[in-house]
Fold this protein.
Amino acid sequence: LTNNVYTPSLLDTTNNALSISPGNRYVKIILNTTGICPNVADTFKLHVKQPPIVTAGANSVICANNPSVQLQGDVYGATNQGVWNVLIPGSGSFVSGINTFTPMYQLSPTDTTLNQLHFVLTSTNNAGCNAVSDTVTIGINKAPLVKASAINPIIRCSNNATVSLNGTISGTTTSTGIWQTGGSGVFLPNN
């Protein structure tokens, strides 16, 4: 049987390790004759390259009212090139291009209404290897909604100027806030 398929094992693929001298980073493939005549053989060397290794970075969370994402990816091994994509329904834009490992992505108004976006970094110019991809997920917290008072402005006399504060913060995972003033009065309790 002279037409066959050879699938390298994991051990074969580690023959590309830097600890092995370059002249020995191969698997020898031999075709031998069989039958009643004396055996004749021919060989060739199969060099198994390391495939691209892709990391799209760590998952993270942003807030919808700060609608930009700094991605941090890397590609190495058979290539050091890659391209970023945002999966549908993402509709923003890559401000600094899709062919850099640290692009800035600007969320569209539609993106800010989503709970998360998925970004894919895929290796390119793979030197004969199959492309490899990795995905990073960016969670999107809703923008906080802050209401200091239902009445604005509040008018008080200087001899009865104390104001009971009852503001609300909603729309996000943040459920607390801090009071500040442009005046010189004090908050009780302290904020």
About this structure: The chain is about 0% helix and 30% strand. The first strand starts at residue 27 and ends at 32. The CA atoms of residues 15 and 21 lie 9 Å apart.
